[in-house]
Amino acid sequence: MSKPIDWKVDASDGKARAGTLRTRRSVIETPVFMPVGTQGALKGVRFEWLENEMDARIILGNTYHLFLRPGVDAIKQFGGLHRFTSWERSFLTDSGGFQVFSLTDLRKLTEEGVEFRSHLDGSKRFLSPEVSMEVQAALDSEIVMVFDECPPGDAGHEQTRSSLELTARWAARSKKRFNELQSGAPASGGASDLSGKQALFGIIQGAGHLDLRRESLDRTVEIGFDGYAIGGLSVGEEKAVMYDVLDHLAHQMPEDAPRYLMGVGTPEDLLEGVEKGVDMFDCVIPTRNGRTGSAFTSKGKLNIRNARFALSDEPLDPGCSCSVCKRYSLGYLRHLYQAGEMNASIMLSHHNVAFFLDLMRRARAAIIAGEYSQFKRTTLENLRASTPESGV
Amino acid sequence: MSKPIDWKVDASDGKARAGTLRTRRSVIETPVFMPVGTQGALKGVRFEWLENEMDARIILGNTYHLFLRPGVDAIKQFGGLHRFTSWERSFLTDSGGFQVFSLTDLRKLTEEGVEFRSHLDGSKRFLSPEVSMEVQAALDSEIVMVFDECPPGDAGHEQTRSSLELTARWAARSKKRFNELQSGAPASGGASDLSGKQALFGIIQGAGHLDLRRESLDRTVEIGFDGYAIGGLSVGEEKAVMYDVLDHLAHQMPEDAPRYLMGVGTPEDLLEGVEKGVDMFDCVIPTRNGRTGSAFTSKGKLNIRNARFALSDEPLDPGCSCSVCKRYSLGYLRHLYQAGEMNASIMLSHHNVAFFLDLMRRARAAIIAGEYSQFKRTTLENLRASTPESGV
Fold it and tell me: What does the pLDDT average to over B348-371?
């Protein structure tokens, strides 16, 4: 039986990899940044821009949010997330676990799953490996994530181990229910050498404990997935902890499957992650920062509120070729932000997403050219160059 | 000396006119709806959409808002509103008078002008015919409006007459200062048979008093302007009053100049105005309603919050060819609105503006075909058809 996705490494440079991930709906060149369409839309950025200008091939959808609203029945009625949203390229959906643990209270965690109160209306809801797989099957994303428990970044060894054990048992249950659902599901999408079904990624936990990370990796690989993710980083721990985990873990993950670092991060984090062997990233930073007036540029972050931009006819980033940088000045964008115009959020979010996508494209080119270390060094130097005076 | 704008009537049908207004920056086919870019941007809709998809040829800028922020010095520094905003087609700027009278308090009205407190920071500011002309010269709009006083919609005869007298004196002062500023200004824009300077429109006041409207018209024409506007309607009076004034006034306005109905209105108002001889309209309704979840369609207004749209895969308006209607379903747009996603505002505003622009294009075609009465009747019937059940 053919596989749901196809993965090949096009080039390596040290531990960094340039790969090609094909799903039934799109061809994704890695390393790749996946913009987050939390509730079925990328905040402030219409799909037309993502497709035509930025050429994003895959975005995220959040199972927790879509499970609560519009709900599984509505999504099924529309025939899945693609038809509901009109985004016809690939979707990766998370399992809902992370949001349950970070957004809700009154949680009741059992072996079976987790009962929680909706942050929208306080109603009692329940998610488990089985339910998460069922919701993600209804969403019909290309890449499904196992339902895991994510311990706090500062969890002790014992707490982390017991969470890891639960995650391993949930991973096995996720895979079982996933397989049942796939066997009954009709194939969809276009690539004829693929199965047309969904792919399932496992998640490695273990917080900052390297021995537990290694153990989680082994147990996850033993179960066997189409791809492997590193969860539970960028959840409040020190940067050094994240880089340390990545250093030890990423290159030990299976070579013949994509490696995905969940919920990370800044441009610096992405460059570090790529160097350590990560292929896929996602984060809300570009749009969230865009809405609060913060722009990522090749010379570091800038805060559009800064008075020194008031009369500037320079673009956000002279090194960026996105439609915002080609047309609009710092002075104009600052004016829109100060005036409370949502067009400021729209345009800063647009630029930030374009910047992240472009950064990963340039990383890929550097890997293929065998110049990743130099690329990373130069890029980081520039990113850090003007931050102190940029008013952030 | 050549004129700043060129106006010709292409076709008439009853009192309705199809015309062509050429400015130094664009060719505007009328009747036309002018979207309002209050603070130098159309709320939620990027200029790229306005240019490439909707092909809007002229938008408004608000002198009051731009005067306060970013201020005249900043606008001058950028070389005018076009360069500041990157909108290179035509701008019409209002005089600031209407906002001073509707947004500020602690006003002190004298023969000289009006002192007021900024709604932004409470600082004392001053606008007069001369200052307004100077600000609009700095903005470098294609069409400048005289500085007028706008009495309340229910103003009595005496109050209205004295306001009208003041407006007439201010109109003469506006023209004097405008001419001084134009004589010193360099020409800009492309059309070689035009002067490259700004055009000035006079404003007819008189509230609901037909005799005063007639008097105001005569006095305004006597001063002489490049175009004529009807002010002080849609400011709280009954619809019947507005239609009555338009019935008596519009067709008596000079035939050889464009006629502009300020701040109006709904699709119904536009169709009525066109029938009575109006060429130009502006209103914030399409974007304001878009932000509150209300969409204009060929079958009437609809409220996107309505539960009956939750599972609908129909577009906002099957009769609309805008990029929102071609792609997104009612169910998806409702979901975005309910979820508080700004993309709902973005897409509803987009559709509404496209709808207004298209309505005027279809009105123009009907006038040229000599079928305006029938077009208006049919369109109004449809607009009113489903409103009761649309949940507004």
Answer: 98
What whole-number percentage of chain B has pLDDT above 90?
89
Q: Which amino acid, one-letter code, is at B89?
A: R
Higher per-residue confidence, A193 vs A83: A83
Q: Is B9 helix (H, G, I), strand (E, B) or coil?
A: strand
Q: What pLDDT, on the 0 to 100 scale, is given for residue A391?
A: 43
Neighbours of A171 (CB within 10 A): 26
Which DSSP category does A203 fall into? E
Name the nearest CA neighbour of B144 among B182, B189, B87, B115. Answer: B182
User: What are the structure tokens assigned to B116, written together?
Assistant: 């007021």
Rounded CA gap, B120 and B114, in Å? 17
In angstroms, what CA-CA distances link A91 with A25, A87, A273, B238?
A: 9, 8, 22, 52
Q: What is the rounded distance in angstroms from the CA atom of residue A309 to the CA atom of residue A319? A: 17
How far is B118 from B62, CA to CA, in rounded Å?
14
Shortest alpha-carbon distance between residue A322 and chain B (Å): 13
A389 has a pLDDT exceeding 50: no
- Does the CA dihedral B278-B283-B285-B291 come out positive or negative? positive
Residue A284 above 80 pLDDT?
yes
Active-site residue, selected from the candidate residues B13, B140, B279, B282: B282
Sign, CA dihedral B38-B196-B252-B15, equals negative
Is pLDDT of B390 > 70? no
Give dist(CA B367, CA B15) in Å, integer.
10
CB distance A164 to A232 below 8 Å: no
User: Among A13, A226, A282, A358, which one carries the catalytic annotation?
Assistant: A282
Tens digit of each residue's pLDDT (9 = 90 or more) over A78-129? 999 999 999 999 999 999 988 888 887 778 999 999 999 998 999 999 999 9
d(CA B19, CA A337): 38
Quick one: average pLDDT of B376-388? 86
Verify whether the Cβ–Cβ distance A40 to B332 is below 8 Å: yes
CB neighbourhood size of B379 (10 A): 18
- pLDDT over threshold 70, residue A285: yes
Q: Per-residue b/e over B319-330, b at no fewer than 16 CB within 10 Å?
A: ebebbbbeebbb
Look at residue B392 and tell me whether its pLDDT is greater than 50. Answer: no
Contacts of residue B222, defined as CB under 8 A and 6 or more positions apart, other chains included, come to: none
CA A312/CA B9 separation, integer angstroms = 43
What are the angstrom distances between the C-alpha of B50 and each of A269, A339, B59, B87, B321? Answer: 38, 21, 10, 10, 14
Instruction: Please tell me the distance in Å from A79's CA to the nearest CA on chain B.
Output: 11
For CA atoms B364, B365, B369, B370, the dihedral sign is negative
What is the interface pTM, i.e. ipTM, of the complex?
Answer: 0.97
pLDDT of residue B389 exceeding 70, the answer is: no
Burial of residue A46, with CB atoms counted within 10 A of its CB: 0-12 exposed, 13-18 middle, 19 or more buried: buried
Nearest to B90 by CA among B55, B49, B134: B55
| pTM exceeding 0.90 | yes
Query: Residue B286 pLDDT more than 90?
Result: yes
Please compute, for residue B244, the number of CA atoms within 13 A of its CA located in the half-sphere on the CB side.
12
User: For residue B48, what are the contacts with CB-CB under 8 A and spacing of at least 6?
Assistant: A323
What does the pLDDT read at residue B388?
Answer: 43
Which pLDDT score is estimated for A68? 96
Backbone CA torsion sign across B326, B329, B333, B339: negative
Measured CA to CA, the distance from residue B185 to residue B123 in angstroms comes to 30
CA dihedral B351, B355, B356, B358 (to 10 degrees): 130
Is A313 catalytic? The answer is: no
Contacts of B314 in chain A (CB under 8 A): none
> Between chain A and chain B, how many beta carbons pairs sit less than 8 Å apart?
108
